[in-house]
Automatic annotation (TrEMBL):
SUPFAM superfamilies: P-loop containing nucleoside triphosphate hydrolases
Family per similarity comment: Belongs to the ABC transporter superfamily.
Keyword match Lipid metabolism: no
InterPro entries, per the entry: AAA+_ATPase (IPR003593), ABC_transporter-like_ATP-bd (IPR003439), ABC_transporter-like_CS (IPR017871), MacB-like_ATP-bd (IPR017911), P-loop_NTPase (IPR027417)
A single MF term (Gene Ontology): transmembrane transporter activity
Transmembrane segment boundaries: none
Cellular component GO terms, alphabetical: membrane protein complex
ATP-binding keyword on record: yes
UniProt entry keywords in alphabetical sequence: ATP-binding, Nucleotide-binding, Transport
Protein name per Swiss-Prot or TrEMBL: Macrolide ABC transporter ATP-binding protein
Domain called ABC transporter: residue spans: 5-234
Length: 234
């Protein structure tokens, strides 16, 4: 299979006062289409930096980043806006929902700016929220709010789903349910899903595990028999 996500010698430095920090240093890896990929590593290892560059929210200093054959690292601002809007879906640790809009309005907000959106109500039903569409975020549990944010990402019909610590704010069982939903989404829609986590136990559920350390890939593992999340305990 061809590489769907490709990083080739990607370096990113941040300048803080006099100090230069190498957030990523010569990072190379690839991910195939439709894979459930988990990125793990200690705090400060460069995980978020990698996801933000792939999502078109941050640029790299050198190297090449490709998604589905397209060179992301060479896009200008306008092309990047278009790319973020149409090609990538994001899920964040703290949901980032608009508080004065209902669940369905939050999803419509995203689908309205897209070329080929899915119906907001249908996607909310897919994530198990058909009874909660008219609730405001404050009237939803953390797990339900994360479901809304997954629905919002999916409604755009993106090529890839990028999730940065999606269970970081959730309790054990709710977090497991969200991971299950992400894995089911990957299997049922064929979309490529990347999940960042601190939790090594979660790596068992992935097709591919990329370990980061000090701004570099320390290890990459292909898992031919991923375990359903309900069978993993931690
Ligand atoms: N905007 C920024 N300005 C300056 N330094 C930054 C910035 N973003 C990240 N860094 C630095 O780059 C390095 C990698 O950060 P990154 O956020 O990618 O780590 P991470 O692996 O996601 O960590 P965590 O698990 O804590 O979220 C860290 O040393 C961090 O301090
Ligand atoms: Mg991070």
């Amino acid at each position: 299979m061809k590489d769907y996500v490709l990083f080739e010698k990607v370096t990113k430095h941040y300048q803080v006062g006099e100090q230069t920090i190498a957030a990523t240093d010569n990072v190379s890896f690839s991910i195939e289409e439709g894979e459930f990929c988990v990125i793990v590593g200690p705090s400060g290892a460069g995980k978020t930096t990698v996801l933000n560059m792939l999502g078109g929210m941050d640029s790299c200093d050198s190297g090449t980043i490709r998604l589905d054959g397209r060179d992301i690292s060479g896009l200008n601002e306008k092309q990047l806006t278009d790319y973020r809007r149409h090609d990538v879906g994001f899920v964040f640790q703290f949901y980032n929902l608009v508080q004065n809009l209902t669940a369905v309005e939050n999803v419509e907000l995203a689908s309205e700016i897209c070329r080929n959106p899915q119906d907001a109500k249908e996607v909310l039903a897919q994530v198990g929220l058909s009874e909660r569409m008219l609730n405001f975020p404050a009237q939803l549990s953390g797990g339900e709010q994360q479901r809304v944010s997954i629905a919002r990402a999916l409604a755009k019909n993106p090529k890839i789903l990028l999730c940065d610590e999606p269970t970081g704010a959730l309790d054990y069982n709710t977090g497991k349910n969200i991971l299950q939903l992400l894995q089911d989404t990957c299997r049922q829609t064929g979309k490529t899903v990347i999940v960042i986590t601190h939790n090594l136990a979660i790596t068992q559920m992935a097709d591919r595990v990329i370990h980061f350390k000090n701004g570099a890939v320390s290890k990459m593992i292909i898992n031919s028999t991923p375990v359903p999340v309900e069978r993993i305990e931690w």
